[in-house]
Amino acid sequence: MESILYSFLAILALSFLVFIHELGHYFMAIREGMRVEAFAIGFGKPIFTWVRNGVKWMICILPFGGYVRIAGMQKEGDKEPYEIPDGFFGKKPMQRIRVALAGPLVNIVFAFLLFSFLWVTGGREKPFAEFTHRIGWVDPHSTLYEKGVRPGDLIDQYGGAPYNGFRDLLVASLMKGETIQIQGEKINEVTGEKTPFDYTLPSYPNPLVASPKFRTIGVLAPASYLIYTASAGYSNVAESSIELGDRVVWADGERIFSVQQLSSLVNQSTALVTIEREGKRSLQKVARIRLDDVKMTSYEKAEVGDWQYEAGIKGKLQDLSFIPYSLSPTGVVERKLGFVDPQTQVAVADGLQEGDKIIAIDGVRITSSYQLLEALQTRRVLTIVERNPTQQMVHSWRKADAQFDRLSLNALNQLIAGIGQKELLSQEGDLHLLRPIVPTFKGNRYILGLGLSDREVIYNPTPFQQFGSVTVETWRTLTALFSGTLNPKYVSGPVGIVHMVHQSWMVGVKEVLFWLALISLNLGLVNLLPIPVLDGGHIMISIAEAIRRKPFAARTMERLIIPFVALLVVFFLYITYQDLSRLFSKFF
Question: What pTM was computed for the model?
């Protein structure tokens, strides 16, 4: 029932934009002495009609669009349109231009007023991920990843234009460019050092999107705050000592910047190993493999079999998890094991050396290799969270990245260094090392069970900035459409627009006002295009008449307008079909 109400409100809101557009034409036509015959909101069969001051007012069954019918828009009997004194074409070109301009200008002014209202009232709350320059996830199989770009690095330019947020990636993904330029900075998360990079790379179909039309060079998600809001009902999350409002900042050896990165990390076949080398202790990520995948001597297999017996582990020996090293009974690395499949050897190249003493697996201390074998049979995830309520405050989107980066690297490194030690350091400042989380294996994947949400930031550009950015975006879209770099199937039609406004009603009134401002501005700008069926076309024809000092005949006008009317109807039907296809694909 609520969804039906929001749909009705969306249609009502869009009908209002059409109403004020046509009202602009109406009042200017009256002012210029033109005779208005009808005023309609929508198309098709009228469901409500009334007559006032000689004007037939109508509300039609299809609430998309509308029109004002001014006398003299068509031939009346033997008279040409320009021969009707109180008709549209019977007036001077400048008068007609003013009437044609009035509708789009009303929409443009209305959009500016809405942008101004949003600015005065403090703007909107939007997810941090929409505006950050930080990368959240990089395709591990991409050239970009091979070049060393990782989650947490910064984007300054994308596709040859200044980068303003993840929307720029989506826009670029719809264009038909074979290559995309990316500029930014690689960030060392241990030292904070920044290194500039500039690559122009081939694009390829986005692996996270079903349609091959969406392309990428490897940046698959923006960074976001990972704030714990609830347990998803899996694993032993409650036993980890995590609290509501905690922000996940580190897991299994990596700074975490997105849900996608965390999910990928949890599903890696690795173990976080604490080692002692030459009197110094450090963390190493080591491949977690099946014993059946490595080449072992009969003596080594027998020894691991003894460890299995001591640990009381059931099951076949070849199915047990292990690391690709031969170990002494006390957990000292003796040599690196070879693999049955040579390709696996390359994929799991690790950094342990002969003589390294393993003292912990995933934070669980061990003193013997049978304890190591036992610890490797259970997947555990080590997590560090930031616990500071002030970090959850809403800040300006302009300062969002700076706020995101306010994390003590020294405190983080101290906590990491303490993993696997006898005296475990579980807190340093606002950072807390949680007890290991055992993820649940479900649907061929490990699920950590953390319900995570992004942080909201205040997005409040000035009305001039908002007006300018929407105008530029509209121009880019139109240019891409006419040049063929953007497929029309990705343009939203009436159904898609109603759906977007419907969704915005579910977010809040300010979100609705923003979308109404955006649609109103687009409606005004698009109608100014010099296409005969649009207001811009009437302006163009009026200018042409002023130059040639002679009106066009009705037959000439028909030859100009009718083909574009047909094209507009076909385009309307096409994008409506695409809107419906996208809408129904979400339910089937």
Answer: 0.81
